[in-house]
Amino acid sequence: MKILPSFLLAGTVAAVVVGVSWHASKIPSGSSPAWAGSEAATVPLQLASDTSGETRPVVVELFTSQGCSSCPPADALLGELADQPGIIALAHHVDYWDYIGWKDPFARPEATKRQRRYAEELGARFIYTPQMVIDGQIDVVGSRRAQVISSVVTAQTTGESLDIQIEERATLATVRIPAGAKPARPATVWMAVFDDEHRTDVRRGENSGRELVDANVVREFVSIGTWDGEALELSVDLADAIAEGRGGCAIFVQEGGVGRILGAALMPLDSGGT
């Protein structure tokens, strides 16, 4: 393992090379993190209006970690996006930062695996935090507010979207996906169960002494079926998610599992998070 000199990345994202994969690493002491500056104050969150019916639901996936000092502004931006209609915001907490000094309580090895799959799909040479992947196709540094907003607006107004319906009855949900054009690759139907918000007092690592606020933290991410262009109806048991006080459930259809997102829907559950 060796640390890539931070000056090669112009002060934005430092990296650690492990085998053939790159991971986000700590910013050297005294350097400015990627989110430093006034961009957050100068770029308003102004997305495309959905009043015309011409916008489509957009899935925004953030790969983040409580051990990364560059992630809090991206986490905050995801929280803003989560409050916007038509935006399905999901925070995947990766586990490769846990060795730095603070073990992220929401880190999942599956999140890291998904980020690696995106890297392969998008032709990236490394994985890093904070990374946002928008609609499975656009890779953006999650702390670059203006670029994130622009990318979301582009996704809102590009292409058509499957009108996915979710009907909840007690602890069971019925997911209905209409017929549509056959996807270029078999499309995975994903279910993401998430908590609305968590507040954590971090005692070690790069964010030591800070209270971190994490929105839409993914706690379960599973495939519930495959869509081939024909109408599809699926039943989902949400008893455990409801009993655990999870905040919501997102369903989306994605070509090849990590490709273009063809449609998405969101269903609130009992509010959760601590």
UniProtKB/TrEMBL annotation:
It holds the Pfam family DUF1223. InterPro entries: DUF1223, Thioredoxin-like_sf. This is DUF1223 domain-containing protein. PANTHER family: LIPOPROTEIN LIPID ATTACHMENT SITE-LIKE PROTEIN, PUTATIVE (DUF1223)-RELATED, PTHR36057.
